[in-house]
Amino acid sequence: xxxxxxxxxxxxLLVVRGSVLPMILPxxxxxxxxxxxxxxxxxHVFVWKVSLTFVPFSLIGLTLAIFLGFRNNTSYxxxxxxxxxxxxxxxxxxxxxxQSLTLVDAQDGSKVFVHRLIAFVxxxxxxLRGTDPQADLARWLSADDLxxxxxxxxxxxxxxxLADQWLRDRRLDGQLAxxxxxxxQLHMGHLSDxxxxxxxxxxxxxxxxxxxxxHRTVYLYCxxxxxxxxxxxGAMTPLVVTFIAYTFFALEALSSEIEEPFGTAPNDLPxxxxxxxxxxxxxxxxxxxxxxxxxxxxNYILT
Length: 303
Prior knowledge:
This protein has helices spanning 9-14, 21-40, 54-102, 110-129, 134-140, 143-148, 155-172, 178-203, 208-233, 237-258, 271-285, and strands at 44-45, 48-49. By secondary structure, it is mainly alpha-helical. The protein is elongated and about 90 Å long.
């Protein structure tokens, strides 16, 4: 995620770091070079004059803008839903940690339960990013718990089961009344729902064919546009075409980036920082102090 103070209006026009410009710069340069060639040749391809007007481009451009807007809205909806789900993980983990400290008669084992919640958060992050969670899990789980997770394919779900087993043991030992255990199970269910929602977003991308259609249409539109403008605006054709291409290329690149919100691209969710934030919040409930400071962004990027 890009984290930086908002610059003034002039610097915002020139900012490069934290934008999608580096991603689309090769395409823009190619479009500019092609537009310059079309302008110098005045729309001729060998001896054939390509006679196009701006009318079809106006109609296609409007339709293309609508499709790009729909694609961008769909991608942002996935991004925002992912952020809401992680907010629910924070809320429910806090509620469970607080209830384990206030509702359970013997609190000597609450630390184990809270550590399992922290391990769940890190396991969820690693599962969504396809990385190895072993180092993070070893910090918060006992050797027996780690051994039980060794063959688990979905470790986040398995850790939730461990947390459930802790609640069951407290209830069977008479340390947690059944109605109170049921209240805590509601939050456990919400954590499971958040896990399933994140898995759904991660495993169900926007249909590939839809992206291919938009991608092809954008490039064909931008490459044919100089032929439709050169007769009417002449030498300004490369500038106008490049500006229009920047708009379309940038929207496509941005929607493609936030479509998968759990990655490590600059505009994706900062799962590392969010996981550390949840961990710190739960450790504070345990009474721990001198906790590490939030991770600073690196070159305006928070991972």
